[in-house]
Amino acid sequence: MEGGRRLVRCAVYTRKSSEHGLEQDFNSLAAQREAAEAYILSQRHEGWRLVKTRYDDGGLSGGTLVRPGLQRLLADIEARKIDVVVVYKVDRLTRSLADFAKLVESFERHGVSFVSVTQQFNTTTSMGRLTLNVLLSFAQFEREIAGERIRDKFAASRKKGMWMGGHPPLGYDIQDRKLVVNETEAAQVRRIFDLFCRLGCVVKLKATLDAAGVRSKARVSTSGRSYGGNPLSRGALYHILKNRLYRGQVNHKGTWYPGDHPAIVSADLWARVQAILAGHRTDRVHGTRQAAPSLLTGLLFDDAGNRMSPSHARRHGRRYLYYVSQALLQHRPQAAGSVARLPAHAIEAAVTDRITRFLSDPDRLALQLGISDSASREILARMRRANGEAEPDRAHAFVRALVRVVMTKVIVGRDHITISLARAALHVRLCGPQAGETSGEEKRGGEPGPDESDTIELTEKVTWRRRGRVTTLVLPADGRGADAAPNEALVKAIARGHVWAQKLVSGEIGSVKALGELVGLPERYVSRMLRLGFLAPVLVQEILDGRLGSNLKLQALDNLPLRWADQCRHLGLSS
Question: Which residues contact 480 (CB under 8 A, 6 or more apart)?
Fold first, then answer.
C-alpha cells in the first residue's frame, strides 16, 4: 500500500521482429519502453509503479511464443510478481489470435491486466477484450498480407530470372545480388560433367574426383567462420549433375525459368548427362543393373495383398536374395500373408517355368489369344528356333524381358502361385502387328502396357518347406523348371558316399582311416561323405529329380537322424 492506495506493479514488454537497428543507442525497443514508462508515470496517482526487470525480445517474430523475454514475463506472472503488463501496441505481444487468447487466459487466471499504450484499453472490461480481439485480427491480417506481398514479389523476380538469395553453387559467385561465373570453379563443374559422361557411374566419378583433390565450394560466413572445401559426396554430385542452374535457369516451386546469369554447361553436354541419369533410373525400376536382377520387383504380392520387395542377406561371404512382404518390413508381422519371405531364385524360376509351359501349349495359347491352331504352332516353332539359336544368356534375357512386359501381378499363397498376364501385350509380343487389329501406338512399333482389365491367369500348385529359417519351394512333379534342376555338387557327393560305403561293407577297405589315406582326403571329411551313402531312398530320389531345389546344400544333410522316416520328416518329406 502507498498513501492508502494499492500498489500496482507494472511490467513493460517490448519486441522487434528484425535485428536491423538494434545496435543503435536509441532503437525501436528503447522507443517502445520510453512510451510505456511515460504512460505508467501518468497513472502514478492510481498506484502504478514500474517493475525494473526488463522484458525485451529483439529480432524475434511475433508468430511464436517461444521468446526469452516473453517466457521470463510469464514466469514472473506465475510467481505473482506482476499486476499489469504494458506494451506499446498489441502486436508487440503476439500477432496470433490463438496465441493471444492463451495469454489473456493466463493473465486472467493470475489476476493480471493488459494495457496497450497507443490503443488505450484495458482487458479487465468486456469492451476492452472485444476491442483487443478486433485489433488483433487486423494485426494478423496485416501480417498475412505482408507475407503475400513478399511471396508475390519473390515469384515475380524468379520468373524474370533474378537470383533471390541463398548460397551460390559451385561455379558461381555473387556480385551486386547477381550470379557471376567463377571461371576456376566453372572449369571444375564442366570437368565433373565430362567425367560422368565417360565413366557413366557416380561412384567411379567420386573416386576419380577424390583422387584429383576436387572439393566443394569454400565459403566464409558473415561471422568469419569458414566452411565447405570438403570432398564432394555422392549426393552432392547427383545434385550438381541435375542442377539446371548450370544451364542458365532458375527454379521457383518446381518450375524452371530462364535466368539472367550465363550457363556453364553446354546444351549437348547437359543432354548426354541427363540421358545417362534417366537410363540409371529406368534400370533401377526394372532391376536390370543389379548383379542378380530382381525380376518380380513391383509385381509380387502375398495373399494378404502386401507388396513383396527385394531384399538380401550375406552369410559366409555369399549374397542371398529374397522377396520380403512389406508387412514384415514395416514391423506388422500379423498383417503378412501365409508366405512372408521367399528365396528370390525359387519364386522367379517357378514363375518363368509356369509361363514357359503355358507358351509351350499351342492349344491353350490359341484359345487364350483367339488365334488359329496353325498360328499358335507357328509361334511355338518360332520361339523354339529363337531360343535354340541364341546363346544361353540371351535366351534367358529374352524370357525375363517377356515376363516384364506381359506380366501384371503374381500372388503367392500357402499352396499356390497365381500369375496374371496382360492378354493384349502378350498378343502383340507373340503375334506381331500383322496378326490382328493394331492400335496407332502399335503401328508405330510401340507395345501396349499391361492391362489388368483383360488378363490371363495361370495357377501353379506349390509346396513351401521350412528348414530352420530358410523357406524353399517344391514344384509339382509335372512342373519342374530351372529350380527343379538337381544340385550337381550334392549328387556327386552322394554318389561318392555310396561308392565309399560299398568299399567298406565289402571289406575292400578295412577302415575309414585307410580309406582316407587311399583317396588322399582327411578322415573327418571321408566320415562326413560316408553318411550320404545311408540316406533314405526317397530322399535320394527327390535330390536326383531336383524336386528339393538347388537351394538344398550339403550342410543341410549333416547330422541327419539314422532312421529313414526321421530323415524324411526332418526335411519335410513324406516317408
Answer: 353, 545, 546, 547
Nearest to 209 by CA among 229, 228, 184, 188: 188
Residue 340: CB partners within 8 Å, gap ≥ 6?
302, 324, 325, 327, 328, 333
The C-alpha cell at 554 is 550339403
Instruction: Mark 490-501 as b/e (b = at least 16 C-beta within 10 Å).
Output: beebbebbbebb
Burial tier of 364 (Cβ tally within 10 Å: 0-12, 13-18, 19+):
middle
CB atoms within 10 A of CB 412: 26
Q: How far apart are CA 387 and CA 254, in angstroms?
A: 48
The pLDDT assigned to 572 comes to: 60
| Below-70 pLDDT ranges, the chain | 1-4, 98, 120-125, 128-129, 132, 135-136, 138-139, 158, 160-161, 164-165, 254, 280-293, 384-401, 432-453, 465-486, 545-556, 558, 570-575
Q: What is the pLDDT of residue 571?
A: 67
Structural domains for the chain? 8-145 (3.40.50.1390), 172-286 (3.90.1750.20), 300-474 (no CATH), 485-570 (no CATH)
- Three-state secondary structure call for residue 84: strand
Residue with cell 555310396: 498
Give pLDDT tens digits for 397-431.
566 667 777 888 999 988 889 998 888 878 877 77
Within 10 angstroms of residue 6's Cβ, the number of other Cβ atoms is 9
pLDDT of residue 120: 64
Strand 407-412 relative to strand 178-181, pairing:
unpaired
- Which residues sit opposite 255 in a β-bridge? 252
Beta strands (DSSP E) in 119-278 are 121-122, 172-175, 178-181, 219-220, 226-227, 249-252, 255-258
Rg (CA), the chain: 39
Which residue, chain included where needed, has cell 493473465? Answer: 107
User: Would you say 425 and 450 are in contact if contact means Cβ atoms under 8 Å apart?
Assistant: yes
Confidence (pLDDT) at 180? 86
